[in-house]
Design goal:
The complex is a heterodimer of chains A (442) and B (258). Chain A is α/β, with parallel strands linked by helices and 442 residues long. Chain A contains 16 helices and 15 strands. In chain A, the strands form 2 sheets. In chain A, strands 2-3-1-4-5-6-7-8-9 form a 9-stranded mixed beta sheet, with helices on both faces. In chain A, strands 10-11-15-12-13-14 form a 6-stranded mixed beta sheet, sandwiched between helices. In chain A, helix 1 packs antiparallel against helix 2, helix 2 packs across helix 5 and helix 6 runs parallel beside helix 8. Chain B is built from 6 helices and 12 strands. A 6-stranded mixed beta sheet of chain B has the order 2-1-3-4-12-11, with helices on both faces. In chain B, strands 5, 6, 7, 8, 9 and 10 form a 6-stranded mixed beta sheet that branches. The chains are: A alpha/beta (442), B alpha/beta (258). Bound molecules: zinc ion (ZN).
Chain lengths: 442, 258
């Protein structure tokens, strides 16, 4: 069966690529004609499967884990095309298996959307899982964040070897209780990644997003009264310091400094997450720490995650904003001074249709410099939002192509930054590809 | 550009240039627990529009265990997760007589989603337990497994078209003691059956819509402010807020799919 279905699936994949079709269709075909293809193929990998899930930073973190493992000589399969659902994984597999259906890899590191991850782990039990955060994102899809936390709990409970948790996110840290209540045989180990106390104030927590005193640190758990000290578990990797172009990480009782290509404190925090998962996967085997640290410093951001392009000899940065905490962290990590700013807000299905999240972000940091251009389907919602925060803005143009032209023409000789939702980012990249070099996303 | 006329971005008239017409005190109910889905936007809009109308806003918070502040002119409360509703439950019961007196007396209030439900008689959850409300509104809510999610447009005789976004699994039905806020033309509203959205009692406005509600529905914000000013100062002298972007945001939102 397999000997026919895999070539057929690969053929379908090629054909659907030629047609410019979606990435999941071939996955659907092979699932139909060879049920269990994905399970069998992934089960054959010597280091099994690692799943990365959570609201923010999955793509960049997965990319980091892949590059860290590769620095240690492992062959890694990953679902690069952003097809972070079961059929997407099957489709990516078809691209990488040989004509006999064999995958030449030591491990699969997969980025999975919370809701899809639940289905995936029912089919393929991951050996490792990394759970990053639970934030308000696309509540119109998942309903409530507490529900999203339960999806992550399910992933953790299906994990066989090690679960890596963000100890700073109370909803994620609490998953440990669920894991520990499983029977001893199926009980995976738990590792945490964490933040230095001095950095906690840069990570606002959704529960305390808006109180009179402004965002407060996420280190205080929702259950703890304000001011009450919270006992945090010891972390495997702690992000100690973030500099302009470097960072300090602590693990094995030592602090390691490294240059960082990644920008934005939340990306760098996810580097601590990636390090911890990598260390769990490498286990007791030999670790080449200098190579590991070097690889960490060289990880470039995934597309749209603080990615920098060149337009008219000036940098143009794309900052993906998907939810209030992501937007607030983006504003905090990329100060407005010296930059021309554009904001692009769409409300397509992949962006989330609910616009209420814009009201959970404070835009004070843009007040001094103002915003040059507002665009996207919901450009006027963004305009209204800025009006109520007393932030000046120039042109409001829902059409992204026209807006981008206005933005580039109007801010010549100046570095530019675009805060954009997912589908508006895709549109902007398409437009930019016409005038500059944009990394092709396969 | 389409045929829309693009307003010139201007800053609003500065309140400092003219003497204040008086202070209006706005109380946010439980902003720590009930703040999901942009509820801060409603408080911010009240604060800014009070200023733009030439009055001085004072924004206060009431959280679990706080002392309830005196001389409140407008009360605004938002939604929360089920867990947030559980946390505030007992405290809200303790404040109920006070809030009920204010509502009966004509104080303007806006309650959204979770607090709308708790301002009603009860919320019977889908798993069984009944969360008692404070009965200011003659409504009851029953938890369901169906989540009503999406863009909403409704017609209101009082405020014209009201636009927002709903996301709730509790379904609310109105008793004879309240009027609906409006009748939906897109979306579900209070429940999946009768086409009503929200509730009105005295000067209390209750709704499932966030979005946030007030930015794109300045008529409701101004109703709350006008009522507060009239009760406090005997009259309301409006300013001239610039609502061009609110109008354009409404036009674009109205064309979006559910
Ligand atoms: Zn709601």
């Amino acid at each position: 069966m397999l000997s026919f279905s895999v070539p057929l699936g690969k053929l379908v994949r090629r054909l659907s690529r030629l047609r410019g079709g979606g990435s999941a269709f071939p996955g659907l075909v092979v699932e139909k004609i060879a049920p269990g293809f994905m399970q069998r193929t992934l089960a054959s990998l010597p280091h099994g499967v690692a799943v990365v899930s959570g609201t923010n930073g999955k793509t960049t973190t997965t990319k980091m884990v892949v590059e860290l493992l590769e620095s240690q000589g492992l062959k890694v399969f990953t679902n690069r095309s952003g097809s972070n659902f079961t059929r997407g994984v099957a489709a990516s597999l078809l691209g990488d298996v040989d004509w006999r259906g064999r995958l030449d890899a030591d491990i699969a590191v997969l980025e999975l959307d919370e809701a899809h991850a639940v289905h995936f782990v029912n089919k393929v039990q991951p050996r490792y899982s990394l759970l990053l955060n639970v934030l308000r994102d696309q509540l119109d899809r998942f309903g409530e964040i507490d529900k999203t936390a339960r999806l992550l709990e399910h992933i953790a409970s299906k994990t066989t070897d090690t679960v890596v948790l963000n100890r700073e996110d109370p909803r994620v840290a609490r998953i440990a209780t669920v894991v520990n209540s499983l029977d001893a045989v199926h009980h995976p180990a738990i590792r945490y990644f964490g933040l230095d106390e001095s950095l906690r104030s840069t990570f606002p927590n959704d529960d305390e997003m808006r109180t009179g005193s402004g965002p407060s640190p996420s280190g205080t758990s929702v259950a703890a009264a304000p001011g009450e000290a919270v006992d945090l578990p010891a972390a495997d990797v702690v992000l100690r310091r973030v500099g302009a172009q470097d960072a300090d990480f602590e693990f094995d009782g030592e602090t390691v400094s490294t240059a960082m290509k990644l920008r934005g404190v939340y990306n760098i925090f996810n580097a601590a997450a990636a390090l911890s998962l990598t260390r769990a996967i490498l286990g007791t085997g030999p670790v080449d720490t200098p190579k590991l640290v070097k690889a960490l410093g060289e990880v470039a951001p995934a597309f749209g995650r603080g990615e920098s392009l060149t337009v008219d000899g000036q940098p143009l940065e794309l900052v993906l904003v998907k939810n209030p905490s992501g937007f607030r962290l983006g504003l905090k990590s990329f100060p407005a001074g010296g930059y021309a700013t554009m904001i692009a807000i769409n409300d397509n299905y992949a962006d989330g249709r609910d616009m209420s999240w814009l009201w959970d972000v404070e835009f004070d940091s843009l007040r001094e410099n103002g915003v040059e251009v507002l665009t996207g389907v919901r450009a006027y919602d963004m305009a209204l939002r800025l009006q109520y925060d007393d932030v000046r803005f120039g042109v409001v143009e829902p059409d992204i192509t026209a807006a981008l032209r206005t933005f580039i023409d109007g801010s010549r000789g100046k570095p530019k930054r675009v805060f954009c939702t997912y589908t508006s980012m895709l549109a902007i990249r398409r437009e930019l590809a016409k005038i500059t070099i944009v990394e092709v996303v396969s | 550009m389409t045929s829309e006329t693009q307003p010139k971005p201007e800053t609003q008239p500065s309140p400092e240039t003219q003497p204040s017409k008086g202070t209006i005190r706005v109380l946010q109910l439980y902003p720590k627990e009930m703040n999901i889905y942009g509820d801060w936007g409603n408080a911010l809009v009240l604060q800014q529009r009070i200023k733009w109308h030439g009055y001085t806003p004072e924004l206060l918070e009431y959280n679990v265990g706080d002392e309830f502040p005196e001389d409140i002119d407008i009360v605004v409360g938002g939604g929360g997760q089920d867990s947030g509703q559980l946390v505030i439950q007992d405290d809200l019961q303790a404040q109920a007589p006070h809030l009920r007196r204010m509502a009966d007396d004509g104080a303007p209030m806006l309650v959204i989603c979770g607090l709308y439900q708790l301002f009603g008689k009860f919320f019977k959850t889908s798993t069984g337990p009944v969360i008692p409300g404070i009965g200011i509104l003659d409504v009851e809510t029953h938890g369901t497994d169906e989540r009503l999610i999406g863009n909403v447009i409704m017609k209101s005789t009082e405020f014209g078209d009201i636009l927002g976004y709903e996301n709730h699994s509790g379904q609310t039905t109105l008793g004879p003691g309240v009027e609906p806020l409006g009748t939906v033309t897109k979306g579900a509203g209070n429940n999946s059956k009768d086409g009503h959205e929200g509730a009105r009692y005295n000067n209390v406005v209750a709704s499932y819509l966030h979005g946030s509600l007030l930015p794109k529905n300045p008529a409701i914000a101004d109703f709350l402010i006008r009522t507060a000013a009239e009760r406090k100062f005997g009259s309301f002298v409006p300013g001239e807020p610039d609502d061009d972007f609110a109008r354009l945001a409404r036009e674009h939102a109205a064309r979006r799919p559910r």
